[in-house]
TrEMBL record:
Its EC number is 1.1.1.22. Pathway: Nucleotide-sugar biosynthesis; UDP-alpha-D-glucuronate biosynthesis; UDP-alpha-D-glucuronate from UDP-alpha-D-glucose: step 1/1. Keywords: NAD, Oxidoreductase. This is UDP-glucose 6-dehydrogenase. It catalyses: UDP-alpha-D-glucose + 2 NAD(+) + H2O = UDP-alpha-D-glucuronate + 2 NADH + 3 H(+). Residues 322-424 form the UDP-glucose/GDP-mannose dehydrogenase C-terminal domain. It comes from the Bacteria. Gene3D superfamilies: Cytochrome c1, transmembrane anchor, C-terminal, NAD(P)-binding Rossmann-like Domain. InterPro entries: 6-PGluconate_DH-like_C_sf, NAD(P)-bd_dom_sf, UDP-Glc/GDP-Man, UDP-Glc/GDP-Man_DH_C, UDP-Glc/GDP-Man_DH_C_sf, UDP-Glc/GDP-Man_DH_dimer, UDP-Glc/GDP-Man_DH_N, UDPglc_DH_bac. Belongs to the UDP-glucose/GDP-mannose dehydrogenase family. It is an enzyme of class 1 (oxidoreductase).
Length: 441
């Protein structure tokens, strides 16, 4: 099938590449000529495990190409995906400027194309958009004389760091349509990915749009819930890791997404929780739970700093701390809304010298902090002379370090384990002062 993807950000590029991999003829469009130039010469503008190889192979085999020419790509395509960014506006709403600009450009490109040629066309919104946006996209297309073009909502559920696997083996595919013909085109497109009896769920565009927000809201709620329980464990001398297991065996609760930490970050949860709160505000529904989830997370981002401050007390200014992990989670270079940034800001403000290491995100952090931080190429390099280590992101390489080497390198044997990756008993036996999240310290 001929597919055009508008927007070669994270979602657009993964979607386009995976659709090419399943044999479709995919053209990815972006209005940023630099991005297109990088992609045309075999590079990719983001870090995502496995993506570079997949882009290169599909480009080489002629199934995947890149162009700044939206009109030509749209005219040749049967399916047009809108996958541009929806950043947070000042009111907390999703900013739909890019989505609507693209919808208008698609309408402009298709207005002279006779209905039905070269087959039913469907414009599909992949971007996360507030409920009601697809209806507005349809209105805009109609205003350009393209009322015959179907509009569909098809939210994505990709996790950064595992996006290819998530696309290739989705738990489910959700599409929101007005006419069943549009759903059938999408069913055909996704059939290769649903061979293991994964469901293809058809609903209205409004329900599909809402599904995306409800999914992220539920996941964010789980994290704020476990973080709140962890903070209570800290105060009452219980260990959240045992509590987590104790509740997880109840199948109604389960184990997934209940790991406490320094708060959720990234480009999705913080923005989507704000957006759902904004949708409530517009409809006079206070959404108390969502506001609490958001507030708990804001406070959680300060928890590591509070533990550091409590430990060093008056001596904090002038100390040196090592930070392992800067990205908002492992296997990405993404630092948007990362808890590490909140911690770094608070440490610098308190007069602490900060030495950092991250396997992928250092360049992005350097863009913000320049020479205010010391950047170490290797994890152990960050520890030299430091008065303590804070593990902020649980990259796999931090899980089994050589504690004897660490003891030699650190000036003070103190570990703040922001992701509960170490065994508190073992570390204390080895002579470290250990602080976890909710480990009763
Ligand atoms: C999230 C969702 O998981 C995807 O399903 C969704 O498609 C995506 O947002 C999106 O809306 O596009 P992502 O932001 O890539 O994906 O990252 P997650 O793996 O979900 O992690 C989000 C944050 O929650 C991270 O900061 C992570 O450290 C934190 N987290 C996650 C915890 O603190 N504890 C957990 O148990 C799980």
């Amino acid at each position: 099938m001929k597919v055009a993807i508008i927007g070669t950000g994270y979602v657009g590029l993964v979607t386009g590449t995976c659709l090419a991999e399943s044999g479709n003829d995919v053209v990815c469009v972006d209005n940023n000529p630099k991005k297109i130039a990088v992609l045309q010469t075999g590079g990719i503008p983001i870090y995502e495990p496995g993506l570079q190889e997949l882009v290169a192979r599909n480009a080489r085999d002629g199934r995947l190409s890149f162009t700044p020419d939206l009109a030509a790509a749209v005219r040749a395509a049967r399916l047009v995906f809108i996958a541009v960014g929806t950043p947070q506006s000042d009111e907390g709403d999703a900013d739909l400027t890019a989505v609507f600009a693209v919808a208008d450009a698609i309408g402009e490109a298709l207005k002279d194309v006779p209905p039905g040629a070269p087959g039913a066309r469907v414009v599909v919104t992949k971007s996360t958009v507030p409920v009601g946006t697809n209806a507005k996209v349809a209105e805009r297309l109609a205003a350009k004389g393209c009322a015959h073009v179907d509009v569909a909502s098809n939210p994505e559920f990709l996790k950064e760091g595992a996006a290819i696997e998530d696309f290739m083996k989705p738990d489910r595919v959700v599409v929101g349509v007005r006419r069943s013909e549009a759903a059938e085109v999408l069913r055909e497109l996704y059939a290769p990915f649903l061979r293991t009896e994964r469901p293809f769920l058809v609903m209205t565009p409004e329900s599909a749009e809402m599904t995306k927000y409800a999914a992220n809201a539920m996941l964010a709620t789980k994290i704020s819930f476990i973080n709140e329980m962890a903070n209570l464990c800290d105060r009452l001398g219980a260990d959240i890791n045992d509590v987590r297991k104790g509740i997880g065996h109840d199948q109604r609760i389960g184990f997934q997404f209940l790991f406490p930490g320094p708060g959720y970050g990234g480009s999705c949860f913080p923005k989507d929780v704000e957006a759902i709160i904004a949708m409530g505000r517009r409809t006079d529904l206070p959404l108390e739970l969502m506001r609490a989830v958001d507030a708990v997370n804001d406070a959680q981002k300060r928890v590591l700093f509070e533990k550091v401050r409590a430990h060093y007390a008056e001596e904090l200014a002038g100390k040196t701390l090592a930070l392992w992990g800067l990205a908002f989670k492992p296997r990405t270079d993404d630092i948007r809304e990362a808890p590490a940034l909140t911690l770094i800001d608070a440490l610098l403000e308190a007069g602490v010298k900060v030495r950092v290491h991250d396997p992928e995100a250092t360049a992005n952090v350097r863009e913000i902090y320049g020479d205010k931080l010391h950047y170490a190429d290797r994890p152990y390099g960050a520890l030299e002379g430091a008065d303590g280590l804070v593990v902020v992101t649980e990259w796999a390489e931090f899980r089994n370090p050589d504690f004897e080497v660490m003891k030699r390198l650190l000036a003070q044997r103190v570990i703040f384990d922001g992701r509960n990756v170490y065994d508190p008993k073992l570390l204390r036996q080895l002579g470290f002062t250990y602080y976890g999240i909710g480990r009763g310290a």
